[in-house]
Design a protein that fits this description.
293 residues; alpha/beta; Rossmann fold; 10 helices; 22% strand; transferase; S-adenosyl-L-methionine; BioC; SAM-dependent_MTases_sf
Length: 293
């Protein structure tokens, strides 16, 4: 399914460096966050524990705490500097916890989470099987997974501009909605629903877009990228190609956003293994008394 791989250490380093500048450039992220929060209307219970995975600077976590004031709300992020910035959004009367951890290795017990929320984080994880298996593990049966992630048309103009300059990889790639949906089902998550929206942001110049990407920490993190500095001539060719895409005097940049939700599986729900078989798990207690004598 996945023909490319991300450099996890680089992803972590990019976002750590962007912690202080992230909120200067996160207009799209705020818009997507508001849209994602609407999906929480499907959850009709009062959650005891809510995770915000890939919480970044904690804006979304604070909104979750406001929505669920009686719940234990926890911001989880791979970049510790992001969580340090997030402290300013943790109100005295409605504080949330902060935990530095990977989305594929959440430090929480099985079936201990009512709502797992993640806004524009999962595109930085290339092992979807590990990711969604972990989501299924920590979610309570009937718990809600709700997330957004970038799709493959994201930054297609920048990718095309670089392609006209050389044949190297300069822009991170993202997975198709159908691959994400297949991975959700394979992990045993129930009744997934996915939608796609496209946003077009415009800039005064290509360099302003590049500045924004750096400020967000959303820079190239594929392992296939060139390890040496890009030559000035290649860079100028890319800029010239992008300049040719101006519309009404502005530089366009497309962001394809996949928004989805699914439900925690019931006990014993089977899931696909990497070799194509199916695995079902049961607690020891649930098996007691079932043996025939």
């Amino acid at each position: 399914m996945n023909e490319f791989h991300l450099d996890r250490a680089r992803v972590q380093r990019n976002f750590a460096r962007a912690a202080q500048t992230y909120e200067q450039h996160d207009a799209l992220q705020r818009e997507v966050q508001q849209s994602l929060l609407e999906r929480l209307d499907f959850y009709l219970e009062s959650p005891a524990r809510v995770l915000d995975v890939g919480a970044g600077t904690g804006r979304g976590t604070a909104l979750l705490k406001k929505r669920y004031p009686k719940a234990e709300v926890i911001a989880v992020d791979l970049a510790l500097p992001m969580l340090k910035v997030a402290k300013k959004h943790s109100a005295w009367l409605k504080p949330f916890q902060r935990v530095c951890a990977e989305a594929t290795r959440l430090p929480f017990p099985d079936h201990s989470v009512d709502v797992l929320h993640s806004s524009l984080c999962f595109q930085w994880i290339d092992d979807l099987a590990a990711l969604f298996n972990e989501c299924a593990r920590v979610l309570k049966p009937g718990g809600l997974l709700v997330f957004s992630t970038f799709g493959p048309d994201t930054l297609k103009e920048l990718r095309a501009a670089w392609a006209s300059a050389d044949e190297q990889s300069h822009v991170s790639r993202f997975l198709d909605m159908h691959d994400v949906g297949d991975a959700l089902i394979a992990a045993g998550l129930r009744d997934p629903v996915l939608d796609v929206d496209r946003y077009t942001l415009t800039y005064s110049s290509p360099t302003m877009l590049l500045k924004e990407l750096k400020g967000l920490g959303a820079t190239h993190a594929d392992r296939a990228r060139e390890r040496h500095l890009t030559g000035k001539a290649h860079y100028q060719r890319m800029l010239a190609a992008y300049e040719g895409m101006r519309v009404d005097g502005r530089i366009p940049a497309t962001w394809e956003v996949v928004t989805a939700h699914a439900w925690g599986p019931p006990p014993g729900q089977s899931r696909r293994s990497r070799d194509g078989g199916e695995i079902a798990s049961f607690s020891v207690d649930s098996l007691r008394g079932s043996r025939r004598r």
